[in-house]
Amino acid sequence: MDKSRIIQTGRPLFLFILQIIIFIACISFIEFFYYTNIYPDKHVKEAYQQTQCTILQKQLTASGDNYRSDFAVTYLFNGAKYQSYSTGNGLDLAFTSDRQSQEDILAQFDIGQDYTCWVSPKHPNRVVLVLRHSWTSTFPLLIPTIVALITLYYIFQSIFIVFGMTTQKIRTLKNRKKDDV
């Protein structure tokens, strides 16, 4: 077989495999980001029950140069009184380097006042005081989604190119057999 034919066939196949890898990486990132940043807050809105929480204590917790707003709250749920801790970032217990944003969250709540919160029916000690989901949390999905869609286009194009090459080879072989007969 001619080396140029191997290169011509191998190159589209290599590009096709590379496109599949890029597509899978984009979809994996989108899925990971969704289940770690968007789904937890969506789950809170759908599955947790809304109640009123009283702020007992609030503080800015520091871990090195990272910060988190923390709250001690009390609330009634299913006839029982609970006391629990909540962060200013939904279910996320992570710290952030943005101290000002955490101080702003703390400033929104006054000790002794009642605020809407969400309680897990399965685990009543799990309470969410601040929902963190907004449209800006979906912004990091924009670029991987665009890359995935472009890659999907090129995957289909590669399939048609490889399929076209295969169909052309079959026609060539059929024509050679007819010529040999």
Structure description:
Strand 4 (114-119) and strand 5 form a beta hairpin. The chain is elongated. Strands 3-2-1-4-5 form a 5-stranded antiparallel β-sheet. The two termini are 23 Å apart. The protein contains 3 helices and 5 strands, in the order αβββαββα. By secondary structure, it is an alpha+beta fold. The chain folds into 2 domains: 3-36 and 141-180; 48-133, OB fold (Dihydrolipoamide Acetyltransferase, E2P), CATH 2.40.50. The chain has helices spanning 3-47, 99-107, 142-180, and strands spanning 49-63, 66-77, 80-87, 114-119, 127-128. Helix 1 (3-47) runs antiparallel to helix 3.
Features:
OB fold (Dihydrolipoamide Acetyltransferase, E2P); alpha+beta; 3 helices; 181 residues
What is the N-to-C succession of helices and strands? HEEEHEEH
Shape: elongated
Second rung of CATH, namely the architecture of the largest domain: Beta Barrel
* Through-space gap between termini: 23 Å
Oligomer: single chain
**Count of individual beta strands:** 5
